[in-house]
């Protein structure tokens, strides 16, 4: 018993410096993320774009057995062209919408009065007090401002992607050579492979699901004759990358605009129930079925990560919250001292492939 007590006291003494060092490193890391956002955000976007390109090129090779250089070229062309189109729409058409949003805000109160007879005074009062009080102009300017900023950095992101693709194979060799031992090199390679596989699956599946959702929503918007249909479709695509609240926002904004644009409440109901049902079905059935247990992240962690990255990097951080947290979870799972933290971050306490590898 005395030896066991002594071990426990020694373990407690050793744990305090470790906890202190983790807190110091964590605090400095948060400060560095906030201070270096201008440099780190384009680099992070480039890394995720690179992951998507690799996923597309690998799929292209599997389907066509094309040479690697041709598959990489096809992946780069498709992804960068799609990224440019998204940023261009948000930077041009959405900018025009921001200039006119004050007009929409003025007319929204009138639109709310039109639905008083349908939903009752109590619901109307709730809508007026909670929705009109939201500064839509600020939200729209922040969203378009972030997209415009990324559009301005498009050339820099493209250069990052080009050099990342060029050093894709050489970088792994350099990691092994830089490691102090073959075991450390193998561990680093395992971490990189785990991050790459998880991110490729997440980014690829999420891009496909978001594109399907945006295309169906765009068809609904065009059939209704909703103004700025392209902008709402692009925002639907982008907002689906924001966990939990993104799909709600993707329905709320076009629904509110339909109240102002149309005299009848029909288009509003079509968007709310049509697009809302679509988002619900995809978010609760298709999304989990395709992603499966590949992420294995706690639901609370997803919301916490969304709050943290949005606070540090703004709206762009909201889009990047899940991929960045996946990277942190995988890295923690491969570091013995931080493995308990990774278990707490996971959905069910199991770390998937990592456990299998260690047995």
From TrEMBL:
Positions of transmembrane segments: 39-56, 68-90, 150-171, 202-221, 233-256, 268-286, 306-332
Signal peptide: none
GO cellular component: membrane
Protein name listed in UniProt: Transporter
Organism encoding this protein: Ruegeria marisrubri
Keywords in alphabetical order: Membrane, Transmembrane, Transmembrane helix
Chief localization: membrane
Intracellular or extracellular location(s): Membrane
Family, similarity comment: Belongs to the autoinducer-2 exporter (AI-2E) (TC 2.A.86) family.
Membrane-protein topology: Multi-pass membrane protein
GO biological process: transmembrane transport
Domain of life: Bacteria
